[in-house]
Write a structure and sequence with these properties.
It is a single chain. The chain has 13 helices and seven strands. By secondary structure, it is of the alpha/beta class. It has two domains: 39-90 and 219-336, Rossmann fold (3-Layer(aba) Sandwich); 104-213, no CATH class.
Length: 336
């Protein structure tokens, strides 16, 4: 082989390696750009994840979203520096869905099988597919017809349960709980929105993100905080916002007052005060926050966001609060 041919071969090899490197770096870059959660989730922080993430210290070893929902902060941002990533949600159906998605290949297979002969099957002879799936959604959420949302007697992961839940949450208007939401299961291109979930589960970036999750928990917020209560843990908390009946800035009730009432908000403040973890807490303002998290003892920052759940009198934006037990500039925990 001539010297020129050897050089050409070496250059080609270098070019291939360089292209591979660029592709790898591109994938890494995409992972720290906005990916959004696997599904929507009412009240989720997809739109404001960059702002929240910018105030999270980068020396943390364990990252936990206590009220996990769609896990938007994790999916949107870069947590590759963390040794452990932990998801928690007290909603057993949501936690089961996330646990099922960890085995994304099995979850993909289960959804596809369901379209062929299971819960999602729609016979070709049915001309009005939208009506079929609207009726399926309405029947499944109706407690007089289906006990789906009342029967919590399943083990995690339960893939058949997750297939049903995938359809219900992707079909619910604004990703609200189906019992209180109308049907919105088709996108503008007339495809079922659950197909977007399938696309994400088939996406290498999402698969990599899912593979980095260390544990899925289905615990009350107090139990999860106590279980991982150490100085290396970082907690992000986005509880259901408190219904204030016009006394604060969240004067619309979206059902949260029945599942996370005043006593739960106060209990959360009590457990956080004694936590060894660093944490940040999202809220809309209400007067008890000033008592539970005094501004002279905690760090408060705020930002206006356009949000569908920001229903304020004569306002088009909601002011998000982020309350922290550490200095966001240094990451140093208060009283340490």
């Amino acid at each position: 082989m001539s010297r020129h041919n050897t050089l050409d071969s070496d250059c080609l090899s270098l070019l291939i390696n360089y292209k591979t490197y660029i592709l790898d770096e591109y994938i890494k870059l995409k992972l720290i750009l906005h990916m959004a959660g696997l599904t929507g989730y009412f009240g989720g922080k997809n739109a404001m994840s960059s702002w929240i993430y910018s105030n999270i210290p980068k020396d943390i070893k364990k990252y936990i979203e206590v009220f996990g929902g769609s896990f938007a902060i994790y999916f949107n941002e870069d947590f590759s520096h963390c040794e452990k990533i932990i998801y928690n949600d007290a909603n057993k159906w949501q936690a089961n869905f996330m646990a099922s998605c960890l085995d994304y290949n099995k979850m993909i297979s289960k959804i596809e099988e369901s379209f062929k002969s299971g819960f999602l099957y729609c016979d070709d002879s049915i001309s009005d597919r939208k009506k079929f799936y609207r009726d399926l959604y309405t029947k499944t959420k109706n407690p007089t017809i289906s006990d789906y949302y009342d029967n919590s007697n399943f083990s995690i992961p339960d893939y058949d349960n997750s297939v049903i839940y995938s359809f219900m949450i992707t079909s619910a208007f604004n990703a609200c709980h189906a019992r209180g939401a109308g049907f919105s299961g088709f996108s503008s291109n007339n495809k079922l929105k659950i197909t977007t979930l399938l696309n994400k589960l088939n996406n290498k970036q999402y698969q990599l993100k899912l593979s980095k999750i260390s544990a899925i928990e289905n615990l009350d917020f107090e139990d999860i905080i106590l279980k991982y209560n150490d100085k290396d843990t970082y907690l992000y908390l986005d509880p259901p916002y408190r219904y204030t009946n016009g006394v604060g800035t969240h004067d619309q009730d979206y059902g949260s007052k029945n599942i996370f009432g005043d006593s739960s908000h106060e209990r959360l403040s009590t457990i956080l005060k004694s936590s060894m973890c660093r944490w940040s807490l999202s809220y809309y303002w209400f007067d008890d926050l000033e008592k539970w998290y005094p501004r002279d003892k905690y760090y408060w920052i705020s930002k206006d966001f356009n949000r569908s759940s920001a229903s304020f009198s004569n306002k088009t934006k909601g002011t998000e609060l982020l309350i922290m037990n550490y200095d966001p500039k240094t990451g140093i925990k208060i009283n340490d």
